[in-house]
Amino acid sequence: MPKIHPTAIVDDQVKLAEDVEIGPYCVLNGDITLGAGVHLIASVHMQGPLTVGSGSVFYPGSSMGFGPQDAKIKYGDPTAGTIIGSDCVFRESSSVHAASNDHTPTRVGDRAFFMVNAHVGHDVQMGSDVVLVVGAGVGGHAEIQDRVILSGATMVHHFGRVGRQAMTSGLTILSNDLPPYFMAAERNKVVGLNLVGMKRSGMSRDEIAAVRSAYSEVFRKKPPMMEMRQMLAERAKESKAVDDIYQFILESKRAICPVGGRNISRTTSTQSRADANA
Protein backbone atom coordinates (compact mmCIF):
# COMPACT_ATOMS: atom_id res chain seq x y z
CA MET A 1 0.00 0.00 0.00
CA PRO A 2 1.36 3.50 -0.83
CA LYS A 3 2.84 5.43 2.07
CA ILE A 4 1.31 8.93 2.18
CA HIS A 5 2.19 11.47 4.87
CA PRO A 6 -0.91 12.92 6.56
CA THR A 7 0.04 16.47 5.52
CA ALA A 8 0.15 15.57 1.81
CA ILE A 9 -2.78 16.45 -0.47
CA VAL A 10 -3.48 13.79 -3.10
CA ASP A 11 -6.32 14.21 -5.65
CA ASP A 12 -8.77 11.34 -6.11
CA GLN A 13 -7.62 11.05 -9.76
CA VAL A 14 -4.06 10.15 -8.74
CA LYS A 15 -3.02 6.54 -9.36
CA LEU A 16 -0.21 5.16 -7.21
CA ALA A 17 1.80 1.95 -7.38
CA GLU A 18 1.75 -0.09 -4.17
CA ASP A 19 5.17 1.04 -2.89
CA VAL A 20 5.04 4.76 -3.73
CA GLU A 21 6.10 7.11 -0.91
CA ILE A 22 4.69 10.64 -0.65
CA GLY A 23 6.32 12.79 1.99
CA PRO A 24 5.18 15.81 4.00
CA TYR A 25 3.39 18.74 2.32
CA CYS A 26 3.35 17.30 -1.19
CA VAL A 27 0.43 18.37 -3.41
CA LEU A 28 -0.76 16.22 -6.34
CA ASN A 29 -3.64 17.44 -8.53
CA GLY A 30 -5.30 15.93 -11.59
CA ASP A 31 -4.67 12.79 -13.61
CA ILE A 32 -1.31 11.62 -12.27
CA THR A 33 0.20 8.12 -12.41
CA LEU A 34 3.27 7.26 -10.30
CA GLY A 35 5.09 4.00 -11.00
CA ALA A 36 6.62 1.50 -8.61
CA GLY A 37 9.13 2.83 -6.11
CA VAL A 38 8.56 6.52 -6.85
CA HIS A 39 9.47 8.66 -3.86
CA LEU A 40 8.40 12.26 -3.26
CA ILE A 41 10.58 13.36 -0.34
CA ALA A 42 8.71 16.52 0.76
CA SER A 43 7.01 19.65 -0.58
CA VAL A 44 6.81 18.33 -4.14
CA HIS A 45 4.07 19.76 -6.37
CA MET A 46 2.66 17.83 -9.33
CA GLN A 47 -0.07 18.67 -11.84
CA GLY A 48 -1.67 16.22 -14.25
CA PRO A 49 -1.82 14.93 -16.87
CA LEU A 50 1.46 13.47 -15.66
CA THR A 51 2.99 10.00 -15.79
CA VAL A 52 6.18 9.09 -13.88
CA GLY A 53 8.06 5.84 -14.42
CA SER A 54 9.29 3.52 -11.70
CA GLY A 55 12.06 4.39 -9.27
CA SER A 56 12.12 8.16 -9.81
CA VAL A 57 12.89 10.41 -6.84
CA PHE A 58 11.73 14.01 -6.32
CA TYR A 59 13.41 16.31 -3.79
CA PRO A 60 11.79 19.21 -1.90
CA GLY A 61 10.57 22.10 -4.01
CA SER A 62 10.55 20.24 -7.31
CA SER A 63 7.58 21.05 -9.53
CA MET A 64 6.29 18.81 -12.31
CA GLY A 65 3.59 19.15 -14.95
CA PHE A 66 2.41 22.72 -14.54
CA GLY A 67 1.50 24.83 -17.56
CA PRO A 68 3.89 26.52 -20.00
CA GLN A 69 5.53 29.88 -19.43
CA ASP A 70 3.73 31.18 -22.49
CA ALA A 71 1.55 34.30 -22.42
CA LYS A 72 -0.92 32.67 -24.84
CA ILE A 73 -1.59 29.78 -22.46
CA LYS A 74 -4.01 30.29 -19.60
CA TYR A 75 -4.26 28.23 -16.43
CA GLY A 76 -6.55 25.29 -17.07
CA ASP A 77 -6.11 25.20 -20.87
CA PRO A 78 -6.08 21.66 -22.33
CA THR A 79 -2.68 20.01 -22.39
CA ALA A 80 -1.22 16.65 -23.37
CA GLY A 81 0.71 16.93 -20.12
CA THR A 82 4.06 15.45 -19.19
CA ILE A 83 5.71 12.04 -19.31
CA ILE A 84 8.76 11.33 -17.14
CA GLY A 85 10.74 8.10 -17.41
CA SER A 86 12.09 5.63 -14.88
CA ASP A 87 14.92 6.05 -12.35
CA CYS A 88 15.10 9.81 -12.71
CA VAL A 89 16.35 12.17 -9.98
CA PHE A 90 14.97 15.68 -9.61
CA ARG A 91 16.81 17.75 -7.02
CA GLU A 92 15.56 20.81 -5.14
CA SER A 93 13.55 23.39 -7.13
CA SER A 94 13.89 21.60 -10.46
CA SER A 95 10.92 21.79 -12.84
CA VAL A 96 9.39 20.34 -16.00
CA HIS A 97 6.48 22.10 -17.72
CA ALA A 98 3.54 20.49 -19.49
CA ALA A 99 2.90 20.63 -23.23
CA SER A 100 1.30 23.67 -24.84
CA ASN A 101 -0.78 21.37 -27.07
CA ASP A 102 -3.35 18.64 -26.49
CA HIS A 103 -1.71 15.81 -28.47
CA THR A 104 2.04 15.49 -27.74
CA PRO A 105 3.28 15.62 -24.13
CA THR A 106 6.50 17.09 -22.86
CA ARG A 107 8.79 14.10 -22.43
CA VAL A 108 11.81 13.30 -20.24
CA GLY A 109 13.48 9.92 -20.77
CA ASP A 110 14.85 7.41 -18.31
CA ARG A 111 17.63 8.04 -15.78
CA ALA A 112 17.54 11.84 -16.07
CA PHE A 113 19.48 13.70 -13.40
CA PHE A 114 18.26 17.25 -12.78
CA MET A 115 20.38 19.16 -10.27
CA VAL A 116 19.17 22.15 -8.22
CA ASN A 117 17.13 24.73 -10.19
CA ALA A 118 17.35 22.83 -13.49
CA HIS A 119 14.40 23.55 -15.79
CA VAL A 120 12.82 22.00 -18.89
CA GLY A 121 10.17 24.01 -20.70
CA HIS A 122 6.96 23.03 -22.47
CA ASP A 123 6.94 20.59 -25.39
CA VAL A 124 10.59 19.58 -24.90
CA GLN A 125 11.50 16.09 -26.12
CA MET A 126 14.38 14.75 -24.02
CA GLY A 127 16.12 11.40 -24.35
CA SER A 128 17.55 9.14 -21.66
CA ASP A 129 20.64 9.48 -19.44
CA VAL A 130 20.61 13.27 -19.67
CA VAL A 131 22.25 15.40 -16.96
CA LEU A 132 21.27 19.01 -16.25
CA VAL A 133 23.72 20.59 -13.82
CA VAL A 134 22.74 23.38 -11.38
CA GLY A 135 20.73 26.13 -13.05
CA ALA A 136 20.68 24.63 -16.56
CA GLY A 137 17.59 25.56 -18.58
CA VAL A 138 16.00 24.20 -21.75
CA GLY A 139 13.54 26.38 -23.65
CA GLY A 140 10.21 25.25 -25.03
CA HIS A 141 10.02 22.84 -27.99
CA ALA A 142 13.73 21.99 -27.75
CA GLU A 143 15.11 18.53 -28.47
CA ILE A 144 17.76 17.01 -26.20
CA GLN A 145 19.03 13.64 -27.33
CA ASP A 146 20.41 10.74 -25.24
CA ARG A 147 23.40 11.08 -22.88
CA VAL A 148 23.68 14.87 -23.16
CA ILE A 149 25.33 16.80 -20.32
CA LEU A 150 24.34 20.45 -19.90
CA SER A 151 26.73 21.98 -17.39
CA GLY A 152 25.86 24.65 -14.83
CA ALA A 153 23.70 27.56 -16.04
CA THR A 154 23.70 26.37 -19.66
CA MET A 155 20.78 27.88 -21.58
CA VAL A 156 19.29 26.13 -24.63
CA HIS A 157 17.15 28.37 -26.87
CA HIS A 158 13.55 27.35 -27.55
CA PHE A 159 13.30 25.05 -30.58
CA GLY A 160 17.03 24.35 -30.18
CA ARG A 161 18.53 20.90 -30.63
CA VAL A 162 21.40 19.17 -28.82
CA GLY A 163 22.69 15.94 -30.31
CA ARG A 164 23.40 12.70 -28.47
CA GLN A 165 26.40 12.64 -26.12
CA ALA A 166 27.08 16.34 -26.64
CA MET A 167 28.29 18.36 -23.67
CA THR A 168 28.49 22.02 -22.69
CA SER A 169 30.76 24.00 -20.41
CA GLY A 170 29.23 26.04 -17.60
CA LEU A 171 27.46 29.27 -18.62
CA THR A 172 27.12 28.16 -22.25
CA ILE A 173 24.39 29.72 -24.41
CA LEU A 174 23.06 27.65 -27.31
CA SER A 175 20.90 29.53 -29.81
CA ASN A 176 22.25 27.31 -32.62
CA ASP A 177 22.09 23.51 -32.84
CA LEU A 178 24.91 21.50 -31.24
CA PRO A 179 25.70 18.27 -33.16
CA PRO A 180 26.19 14.86 -31.53
CA TYR A 181 29.44 14.20 -29.65
CA PHE A 182 30.52 17.88 -29.72
CA MET A 183 31.50 20.09 -26.79
CA ALA A 184 30.42 23.74 -26.62
CA ALA A 185 31.35 26.76 -24.52
CA GLU A 186 30.52 30.47 -24.33
CA ARG A 187 27.92 31.31 -27.03
CA ASN A 188 27.49 28.70 -29.77
CA LYS A 189 31.21 27.95 -29.78
CA VAL A 190 32.39 24.39 -30.40
CA VAL A 191 35.60 23.73 -28.48
CA GLY A 192 36.17 20.02 -29.11
CA LEU A 193 34.63 16.57 -28.81
CA ASN A 194 33.15 14.83 -25.79
CA LEU A 195 35.79 12.08 -25.95
CA VAL A 196 35.34 11.02 -22.33
CA GLY A 197 31.61 10.60 -22.81
CA MET A 198 32.15 8.66 -26.02
CA LYS A 199 34.54 6.25 -24.32
CA ARG A 200 32.31 5.79 -21.27
CA SER A 201 29.34 4.99 -23.51
CA GLY A 202 31.21 2.00 -24.94
CA MET A 203 31.81 3.38 -28.43
CA SER A 204 34.46 1.45 -30.33
CA ARG A 205 37.86 2.94 -31.10
CA ASP A 206 37.04 2.89 -34.80
CA GLU A 207 33.87 4.92 -34.29
CA ILE A 208 35.63 7.44 -32.08
CA ALA A 209 38.40 7.74 -34.66
CA ALA A 210 35.81 8.32 -37.40
CA VAL A 211 34.20 11.15 -35.41
CA ARG A 212 37.60 12.71 -34.69
CA SER A 213 38.48 12.56 -38.37
CA ALA A 214 35.18 14.18 -39.38
CA TYR A 215 35.70 16.89 -36.78
CA SER A 216 39.24 17.78 -37.90
CA GLU A 217 38.81 17.30 -41.65
CA VAL A 218 35.30 18.64 -42.11
CA PHE A 219 34.17 20.91 -39.29
CA ARG A 220 37.51 22.59 -38.65
CA LYS A 221 37.67 23.58 -42.33
CA LYS A 222 34.26 25.31 -42.05
CA PRO A 223 33.00 24.56 -45.55
CA PRO A 224 29.65 25.90 -46.84
CA MET A 225 26.71 23.85 -45.64
CA MET A 226 26.04 22.02 -48.92
CA GLU A 227 29.67 21.00 -49.16
CA MET A 228 29.72 19.95 -45.52
CA ARG A 229 26.71 17.69 -46.05
CA GLN A 230 28.36 16.04 -49.04
CA MET A 231 31.56 15.40 -47.10
CA LEU A 232 29.68 13.94 -44.14
CA ALA A 233 27.44 11.82 -46.36
CA GLU A 234 30.49 9.99 -47.72
CA ARG A 235 31.93 9.39 -44.26
CA ALA A 236 28.55 8.33 -42.88
CA LYS A 237 28.59 5.27 -45.14
CA GLU A 238 31.41 3.84 -43.01
CA SER A 239 30.45 5.05 -39.54
CA LYS A 240 27.21 4.96 -37.52
CA ALA A 241 28.48 7.78 -35.27
CA VAL A 242 29.29 10.04 -38.23
CA ASP A 243 25.87 9.17 -39.65
CA ASP A 244 24.36 10.42 -36.36
CA ILE A 245 26.07 13.76 -37.01
CA TYR A 246 25.05 13.82 -40.66
CA GLN A 247 21.39 13.04 -39.94
CA PHE A 248 21.30 15.64 -37.17
CA ILE A 249 22.55 18.34 -39.53
CA LEU A 250 20.10 17.30 -42.26
CA GLU A 251 17.23 17.75 -39.81
CA SER A 252 18.38 21.08 -38.37
CA LYS A 253 16.29 24.11 -39.18
CA ARG A 254 18.75 26.62 -37.76
CA ALA A 255 22.50 27.25 -37.92
CA ILE A 256 24.98 24.73 -36.51
CA CYS A 257 27.35 25.69 -33.70
CA PRO A 258 30.73 26.23 -35.40
CA VAL A 259 34.23 25.29 -34.35
CA GLY A 260 35.79 28.40 -32.83
CA GLY A 261 32.75 30.64 -33.21
CA ARG A 262 32.10 31.54 -36.87
CA ASN A 263 28.50 30.88 -37.82
CA ILE A 264 27.84 27.94 -40.16
CA SER A 265 24.88 28.95 -42.31
CA ARG A 266 22.37 26.50 -43.71
CA THR A 267 22.64 28.22 -47.09
CA THR A 268 25.55 29.38 -49.24
CA SER A 269 29.12 30.31 -48.39
CA THR A 270 28.25 33.93 -49.22
CA GLN A 271 25.47 33.85 -46.66
CA SER A 272 27.84 32.23 -44.15
CA ARG A 273 30.28 35.12 -44.52
CA ALA A 274 27.47 37.63 -44.19
CA ASP A 275 26.28 35.94 -40.98
CA ALA A 276 29.81 35.89 -39.61
CA ASN A 277 30.29 39.60 -40.28
CA ALA A 278 26.88 40.67 -38.99
Q: What ranges have pLDDT less than 50 throughout 5 or more consecutive residues? A: 267-278
Largest sheet: spatial strand order: 2-5-8-11-14-17-20-23-26
Question: Rough shape?
Answer: elongated
Distance N to C terminus = 62 Å
State the name of the first-level CATH class of the domain at 3-141: Mainly Beta
Q: How many strand segments? A: 28
Helix content: 10-25%
Mean pLDDT: 94
Any idea of the CATH topology of the domain at 3-141? UDP N-Acetylglucosamine Acyltransferase, domain 1
What does this protein structure show overall?
- Residues about 265-278 have low confidence and may be disordered.
- It is elongated and about 65 Å long.
- The chain has a domain at about 5-140: Hexapeptide repeat proteins (UDP N-Acetylglucosamine Acyltransferase, domain 1).
- The strands form 5 sheets. It has a 9-stranded parallel β-sheet with strand order 2-5-8-11-14-17-20-23-26, with no helix packed on it. The protein has an 8-stranded parallel β-sheet with strand order 1-4-7-10-13-16-19-22, with no helix packed on it. It has a 5-stranded parallel β-sheet with strand order 3-6-9-12-15, with no helix packed on it.
- Helices cover about 20% and strands about 25% of the residues.
- The protein has 5 helices and 28 strands.
- Helix 3 runs antiparallel to helix 4 (about 240-250).
- It is of the alpha/beta class and about 280 residues long.
